[in-house]
Each structure stands twice: as structure tokens, then as C-alpha cells.
Write a structure and sequence with these properties.
This protein is mainly α and 207 residues long. The protein has helices spanning 5-25, 35-66, 74-87, 90-99, 104-131, 135-150, 157-175, 186-206; strands at 2-3, 72-73. It has a two-stranded antiparallel sheet with strand order 1-2. Helix 2 packs parallel to helix 8 (186-206). The model is unreliable at 148-152 (pLDDT under 50).
Length: 207
């Protein structure tokens, strides 16, 4: 049984739009105009910007991945729903970080949710590559399969690299708890690495 590709993409776009809206509404407005309140407000806007970039990167990856999809089966629908579930937790953890700036636990929770979301995003990407009937995709899939034979962990390398980056972020935040908020810079950087991973395949498609 197959589901309409356009319907799944429209649903995903709608959920992501709501996620971004919820995030911006969670930013507390300053209660006064003194320097301390304004700096806290600026810091909250910075955290929102980082999360906005993260969610935007996920949307971009999802859009580019589904370009090469012909039909949507039930397995992909389930994986997409799970992906959206964890993505929808980002506004919650963003709010937690904003309300507890400088605290370690909210940052670690944010990183864990991000890592799980990345995992399902990569899983969806691999499933689409395997099921697509595009000739260019099939050629790349064959190359990946040959590399996987020589290196069984080839398909997991990007995720392992990302895991190390997130682990480094957590370790640094342990020794620098006051800078935990700014360590979130590592999150969009990690997201950019995944974008490069997908762009690598796009260059093959265009060649």
C-alpha cells in the first residue's frame, strides 16, 4: 500500500512550520528595559536562531531527499512520523535551554534529541536511496554497496562523526557550564555536516 508523496510532504511542511512558530512564541519578552533584561532577551533570540537553523536544515534535507522518491510505502510513512516526533521535541528543549541559560542538563537533553532526529533523518535518506528508481540514484546506491562490502561501517561513518561532535559538545559543557548556551553552536555546525553529506550525493546526481 502506497501513500501520496505530495500529501506526506505537505504534512511534513505543515508540522515543521508549526514547530518554528512554537519556538518563536516561547521566547520570553523582557519585563523591563535595563541592560540585564535586554542581554537575556538577546541571548534567547540567539538560542532561537540556532534552533531555527537546525529545523531549517532538517527541512532542507527532507525536501532534497524526497525529490528522488517515486512512491511512499508504509515503512517510510512510519519513519517520517517518528522523525517528526523527535523534531517536534526541539521547541520544548529550546524553551528549556532559554529558561535555564547556563545550565548543563537542558543542553545535554537538546543534544540527545538532535542526535536521535539526525539518526532517523539519515535512515529515511538511505531508505529513499534504496527504493528510488532514478538511474542516477541507482548508480550511487551501487557505489555505496561496493564501498560497504569493503567497509561494513561505511554507511554509519557520518552518524559516528556526528556522535563524536555531540559528545565533544557535552564534554566541553561539563567543564564550562557557564558557556553551555553558546556551546549550542555545535548543533547547527553538526547539522551542516549532514547537509554536506547529502550534497555529496547531489554532486554525483548532477554529473
Amino acid at each position: 500500500m502506497y501513500v501520496s508523496k505530495q500529501r506526506l510532504e505537505a504534512f511534513t511542511d505543515g508540522v515543521i512550520a508549526i514547530i518554528i512558530t512554537i519556538m518563536v512564541l516561547s521566547i520570553p519578552l523582557p519585563s523591563s528595559f535595563d541592560i540585564k533584561e535586554l542581554l537575556a532577551f538577546g541571548s534567547s533570540l540567539f538560542i532561537y536562531l540556532l534552533s531555527f537553523l537546525v529545523v531549517g536544515a532538517f527541512w532542507n534535507q527532507h525536501h532534497k531527499t524526497f525529490i528522488f522518491l517515486d512512491k511512499v510505502n508504509q515503512k517510510l510513512v512510519v519513519l517520517n512520523i517518528i522523525f517528526l516526533f523527535f523534531l517536534s521535541l526541539i521547541p520544548l528543549f529550546t524553551k528549556w535551554v532559554i529558561q535555564n541559560q547556563g545550565s548543563l542538563i537542558p543542553v545535554i537533553g537538546y543534544d540527545i534529541v538532535f542526535l536521535i532526529t539526525i539518526y532517523f533523518s539519515m535512515y529515511i535518506f538511505r531508505l529513499v536511496m534504496q527504493s528510488s528508481s532514478h538511474k542516477s540514484v541507482q548508480k550511487i546506491t551501487e557505489k555505496i554497496q561496493r564501498r560497504r562490502i569493503s567497509n561494513p561501517y561505511y554507511s554509519w561513518i557520518p552518524f559516528i562523526v556526528l556522535l563524536c561532535i555531540v559528545g565533544l559538545v557535552v564534554v566541553v559543557s561539563i567543564y564550562l557550564p557557564k558557556l553551555a548556551t553558546f556551546i549550542l553552536m555545535g548543533i547547527p555546525i553538526a547539522s551542516s555536516i549532514i547537509n554536506l553529506f547529502i550534497s555529496r550525493y547531489e554532486r554525483h546526481f548532477e554529473s
